[in-house]
Amino acid sequence: MASFDVFWPEIASHLDRTLTPVEHDHWLRQFLRFIPASTSEFLGFETRLGDRNGPTDCALNLNPAALEWLAGRTAGIAAPTGPVWDNIRSFLELWSATSASPGADLTRIWLEFDQASAPQMLPNLMFGYFPGGHDPMRTREWLVDRAIPAALGTPLPDPTRARLEAGLDCCGGADDLQIGLMSARAIPAVRLCVFDLAPEALPRLARAIGWDGDVSHVAVLVEALRPHADFVGLHFDIAHTALPRIGIEPGFTASSWARQPHREPRWQGQLDVFAAEGALVPEKRDALLEWPGHEVVTLDTRPVALLRGLSHLKLVFQGDGSTEGKAYYGIAIRDLAQGNDTATSDAVAA
How far apart, in whole angstroms, are the C-alpha atoms of residue 132 and residue 177? Predict the structure, then answer.
């Protein structure tokens, strides 16, 4: 089985060196060689929009073949080893056991790799969580008492658990969450991402988790982005205390390929807000908007579509009141020999 590095010539030919400096190629190829090409349908990249020389972090969402890789059943590419990976395997066992159809919702799970953690290749784990009954077996107790401890390899410390529970209590009515286990970071934390939080609930949530920053400043940034998005998500990192940085993520409800900049003009408004905050350099704006596109290549005699697109932006409010802009973009891989789904047809037609 080939690794994703088989796509490197095509990926490299389209990389804008404003987004991914050539100095990062060694890291990118290390990441691509590490991952079997069968294990994901989307490779994601992250760039700091205000930093001309910032790192390029990487991510992938999982599919059923990823379970084979992690179980050591992928020929030619060894399964990763070590405590962090053992914890991820334990989490995936719990996830699969609570899926209505085993393997069907693995795409809700992401592994994120920070360039700063290379060459260890230790990921942070992110997963979608819908508390409103969408997943009846994934209850609050399952999340806090089983899933998160499995992913961390240990129960949550009492202060972290108390703050997370208090934060979840403030998300009543919200049914679109993400949970992140930031195990590869200097300060391991649980990330609580809320994508449908009522505006008036922000101060209450901040107080509940013990965040002591300027809530009014965050609210101003949220309202500045709201006209340019269908929703604005908020990311909180919770450890022994609430960490000072808050992620503010404007998003669209349209499917990935229907919301690309040539079809969705509100990207420009989001980027305008980032620029006004000093969180975006002009050359990265131009490079980002030029990223989307597609091409068809041949892999093992099969036609494969490589679809380049933008995922989302994030404005990070930092403890000192400054902001940092981030962009998330990537490449979807579609095997055309297996049929053309609507999303692929839509993207290629565009």
Answer: 10
Q: Token match 């050359």: residue? A: 283
Strands (E), the chain: 42-48, 56-61, 109-113, 124-129, 177-181, 190-194, 231-238, 242-251, 293-299, 302-317, 323-335
How far apart are the C-alpha atoms of 271 and 262, rounded to whole Å?
Answer: 14
**Element at 350 (helix H, strand E):** none
Spatial contact of 33 and 41, defined as CB atoms under 8 Å apart: no
Q: What is the pTM of this model?
A: 0.94
CA 259 to chain centre: 17
Which residue carries 């009492």 as its tokens? 158
Mean pLDDT of the chain: 93
| pLDDT band, residue 344 (cuts 50/70/90) | low
Tokens of 127: 């997963």
Give the model confidence (pLDDT) of 205-259 as tens digits: 999 999 999 999 999 999 999 999 999 999 999 999 999 999 999 999 999 999 9
Rounded (10°) angle between helices 266-276 and 282-290: 160
Residue 11 or 87, more confident: 87
The pairs formed by 95-101 with CB atoms below 8 angstroms and a separation of 24 or more are: 95/127, 95/147, 96/67, 97/137, 98/135, 98/137, 98/138, 98/142, 100/135
Residue 183 has pLDDT above 60, yes or no: yes
